[in-house]
């Protein structure tokens, strides 16, 4: 959903924690903005609260780190409930507008969906309460350091806003997922529930965009632009999430063997690379399976590997020189659930060999697998 290189930063409870490079942008903006707020507070309403120099910005970036730790706790709470209910979470990615947990399979029960969705805002409100309690304790004790009062106040305010915002009934916000779970439970129709919740998400995004445009013309440039960006993101994500739901429903009971695969030619390992080049000119395949004299599959030669060999040398070299051994990660049984196979396609250029016993039914890349699946979902 969020393309681009990701940076792995931790592994918590067996879940990979990654950040998208866009997260660094928002971290710098939030940290600097909080630093500016603390400097202004120190100079006006709370004089002398911070030492002179860069300390307001040091506290600002420290507060930003704590805030993003709160977002991570929010996502981990979703993941905890998911795992308690048999739904595996592969990774959590922090990005420009927050965080998202990647599930290995979809939720199949509205009750589980409801519990997973509601626990996120509850965690955020719990953290809001913790920060508020610490704020009150420090404020009431004149002998304690008062330096953290402004950061704590900001953490209370920001987390409260995030919790309330997430409860808006628009998919894919947590409130939208709660709304979808309720509709799903009442009607028994997850497709209809997703459609209604997605429409609500788009409606909320339009209203937010209109408010952002209003603020823009009221000389609140930063607030207006930010609100419009968030609105555009929610609008797009609502549509994408709905399409993904339709796609997953369409392939829910399908097997890899149901795909309209192009059965590849079987090449003997003694064949020259020139012969392989001729086959590649006829078959639009990412690789060709290679067998030994007994018909046993040895591996495959990819189109990219062949093209790396000078054409003048291809008559002199056999397929054995370029064979990529057939490993377990490359093999997909024809009776594997299609959704499970798609989850294995972590890279677009990953090669998969579809087999039924000793028979090769197809050979395709991760991109090809997705294309075949989308073609089948549309029919």
Automatic annotation (TrEMBL):
Matches recorded under CDD domains: CBS_pair_SF, S2P-M50_SpoIVFB_CBS
Residue numbers annotated as active site: 75
Taxonomy, superkingdom: Bacteria
Chief site of localization: membrane
Name of the protein in question: Zinc metalloprotease
Gene Ontology BP terms: proteolysis
Domain spans labelled CBS: 260-316
Sequence positions that bind Zn(2+): 74, 78, 174
Transmembrane segments: 12-35, 55-74, 118-138, 150-175, 196-217, 223-242
Cofactor note: Binds 1 zinc ion per subunit.
Keyword set includes Repeat: yes
């Amino acid at each position: 959903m969020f393309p681009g290189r990701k940076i792995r930063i931790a592994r918590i409870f067996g879940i990979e924690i990654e950040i998208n490079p866009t997260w660094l942008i928002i971290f710098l903006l939030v940290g600097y903005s909080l630093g500016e707020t603390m400097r202004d507070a120190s100079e006006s309403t709370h004089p002398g609260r911070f030492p002179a120099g860069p300390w307001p910005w040091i506290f600002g970036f420290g507060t930003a780190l704590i805030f993003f730790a709160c977002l991570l706790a929010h996502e981990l709470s979703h993941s905890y409930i998911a795992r308690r209910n048999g739904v595996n979470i592969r990774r959590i990615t922090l990005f420009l507008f927050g965080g998202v947990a990647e599930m290995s399979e979809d939720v199949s029960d509205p009750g589980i969906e409801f519990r997973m969705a509601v626990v996120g805002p509850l965690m955020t409100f719990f953290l809001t309460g913790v920060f508020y309690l610490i704020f009150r304790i420090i404020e009431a004790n004149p002998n304690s350091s008062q330096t953290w009062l402004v950061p704590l106040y900001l953490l209370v305010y920001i987390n409260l806003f995030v919790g309330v915002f997430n409860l808006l009934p628009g998919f894919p916000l947590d409130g939208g997922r709660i709304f979808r779970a309720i509709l799903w439970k009442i009607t028994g129709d997850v497709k209809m529930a997703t459609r209604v919740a997605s429409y609500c998400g788009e409606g909320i995004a339009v209203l937010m965009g209109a408010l952002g445009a209003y603020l823009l013309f009221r000389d609140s440039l930063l607030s207006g632009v930010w609100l419009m960006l968030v609105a555009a993101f929610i609008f797009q994500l609502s549509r994408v999430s709905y399409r993904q739901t339709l796609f997953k429903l369409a392939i829910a009971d399908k097997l890899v063997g149901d795909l309209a695969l192009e059965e590849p030619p079987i090449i003997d390992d003694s064949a020259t690379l020139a012969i392989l080049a001729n086959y590649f000119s006829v078959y639009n395949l990412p690789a060709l399976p290679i067998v030994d004299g007994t018909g046993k599959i040895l591996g495959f030669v990819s189109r990219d590997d062949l093209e790396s060999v000078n054409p003048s040398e291809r008559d002199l070299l056999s397929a054995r020189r370029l064979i990529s051994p057939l490993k377990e990660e490359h093999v997909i049984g024809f009776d594997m659930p299609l959704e499970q196979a798609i989850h294995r396609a972590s890279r677009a250029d990953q090669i998969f060999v579809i087999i039924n016993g000793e028979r090769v039914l197809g050979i395709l890349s991760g991109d090809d697998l997705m294309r075949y699946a989308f073609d089948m979902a549309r029919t």
